[in-house]
Amino acid sequence: MSARLAQKTGKPEQVAIVRNWVDLEHIYPLGRKSAYRQELGYADDDFVVLYSGNIGAKQGLDTLLDAAAMLVQQQKIKFVIAGEGPAKRGLVEKYGHLGNVSFLPFQPYEKFNEFMNLASLHALPQERGAADLVLPSKLGGMLASGAPVVVTADEGTELANFLGDSAIITPPGDAEALSRAIEQASKGDREDWKDRRADLSRMLSKQDGCISFINAVTG
């Protein structure tokens, strides 16, 4: 997006990037199992794939839920879709029968870190084209929680470039590739990705975001 603005204006020196930030004092790895597991009836060894955010057209949740349908026989892999939005009702009608999928409303801010730590794997599906607009604001919280992340994004998009080798990346709209990636992720996290995710979460921290904003305003 910044490159497009710079090209459009012809003045790249006037374009600054201030990303949506995350409060690292509020979202962080718990170092234990989330209390939400007991609350929602999940076992400690269940592999929970979590999507938390707006439920609209550009999120590509059909792809994630088609992947869930393909994995319905994998009894330890569970999917949680939390949030609200115009597409939710249709998704519940289409996929609500799946025994491995739960739909929840947005969770309270004061319990949000506990909720984000429910995830064994955070899912960030998007429709093709959305990944090159802006980095989704939910990404900071996903990274800050410490859990692995799977995204759907084409190579060369800002999202794919930002995440690099710290996340699992599959093509938008490809439910089979996403289901395979989720199944593979359920077998264990890569140790070398953990530090990289922590580094990226610090790049999206509230502190760094405020500094970037001040620098952009003051020049």
The fold-level CATH name is: Rossmann fold
Number of domains: 1
The CATH homology group name: Glycogen Phosphorylase B
Which CATH architecture? 3-Layer(aba) Sandwich
- The Rg value, from CA coordinates, equals 18 Å
| SSE-based structural type | alpha/beta
Main sheet properties = 6 strands, parallel
Q: Give the uncertain stretches in residue-range form.
A: 209-217
Question: How far apart are the first and last residues' alpha carbons, in Å?
Answer: 20 Å
Helical residues, percent:
25-40%
3D architecture notes:
The protein is of the alpha/beta class and 219 residues long. It has one domain: Glycogen Phosphorylase B (Rossmann fold, 3-Layer(aba) Sandwich), CATH 3.40.50.2000. It contains ten helices and six strands, in the order ααβαβαβαβαβαβααα. The protein has helices spanning 2-9, 36-40, 61-70, 88-95, 112-116, 138-145, 158-163, 175-185, 191-203, 206-218, and strands spanning 47-52, 77-82, 101-104, 121-124, 149-152, 168-170. The protein has a six-stranded parallel β-sheet, sandwiched between helices. Helix 4 (88-95) links the parallel strand 2 (77-82) and strand 3 (101-104). Helix 3 (61-70) crosses helix 8. It starts with a helix and ends with a helix. Residues 209-217 have low confidence and may be disordered.
Please outline what is shown here.
The chain is α/β, with parallel strands linked by helices and 219 residues long. Helices cover 40% and strands 12% of the residues.
